[in-house]
Specification:
Length: about 270
């Protein structure tokens, strides 16, 4: 393919939630090595009508979609930012335009990102879009998820642009289904230098509600407890149900603290590492 919150402590799957949150404010849109200046445009906090998420919106920008923790916005000069995106993927051979979408779970994170870009280009009616990844920075989440911060350039119907994508692949479930989660900013090349800080401030300001984030992180098929797993003291009920509840809370903690709030790795709960 050429394309391209704070509650604490309890499963391997849940470790991702807090860590994923910390990575959401990482590298630079155009020059990752430079320090990030203050946003060039003030941000005003926007709340989705369903209460699922908030995000900072630059003055002069317009929110075009806000539901189920996904918020999309566009700027006055062709800028576009989308946060809280999720997609269910079945593990299998990738074929462009296939519905439902299939990508091998063993594919690299870059290959998964490229497949998503390709599908977006097809859906937009501009299948000739060209995407080039110039930088891929992994986010260490142990066995919880694959995450990374990708910088690059693309050419689509709006012309040449720079992009930053913060992208995660969650663990596959027992039915061969997994989720992709990402946040993306695209800025026309001519504006990338002056608007980089604003775009990154928007990405970093994203805050889904606890219920919305847990829904994003919830696997399509509930996880099964490992052999020999014992219900911890203070919990009651079916082991599978209890394990699922604990796993969900831990995943939320890890995503919220590690990715959204960017807590240092050493300050995260042990199950996040």
């Amino acid at each position: 393919m050429k394309f391209p919150m704070k509650v604490r402590h309890g499963s391997e799957f849940l470790k991702f939630a807090a860590l994923a949150a910390g990575f959401i404010a990482g590298a630079s849109l155009a020059t990752a090595q430079q320090s990030t200046p203050a946003p060039s445009t003030p941000l005003q906090t926007y709340s989705a009508p369903d209460g699922s998420a908030t995000v900072g919106v630059p003055a002069g920008w317009r929110v075009t979609k806000a539901a189920s923790a996904e918020i999309q916005m566009s700027g006055p000069n062709g800028e576009a930012i989308s946060v809280g995106n999720t997609l269910l993927i079945r593990s299998g051979a990738y074929r462009a335009g296939q519905n439902p979408m299939m990508i091998p779970n063993q594919a690299t994170l870059t290959q998964k990102l490229e497949a998503v870009w390709q599908e977006a280009a097809i859906a937009s009616g501009f299948p000739g879009a060209r995407v080039s990844v110039s930088s891929a920075k992994p986010v260490p989440l142990g066995k919880i998820a694959q995450c990374g911060i990708f910088l690059g350039s693309l050419t689509n119907a709006q012309g040449p642009q720079n992009f930053e994508t913060r992208f995660c692949s969650l663990p596959i479930d027992s039915n061969g289904v997994y989720k992709l989660f990402w946040m993306n900013a695209t800025i026309p090349v001519s504006l990338a230098a002056q608007e980089r800080a604003t775009a990154e401030a928007v990405l970093s300001s994203y805050r889904p509600s606890q219920a919305a984030l847990m829904a994003i992180l919830k696997p399509a098929t509930p996880p099964l407890p490992p052999m020999g797993w014992v219900v911890p003291s203070g919990y009651a009920g079916d082991p599978g149900t209890v394990y699922g509840e604990i796993s969900a809370q831990q995943t939320f903690n890890c995503m919220d603290e590690g990715v959204l709030r960017e807590e240092p790795e050493e300050d995260l709960p042990p199950y996040c590492q």
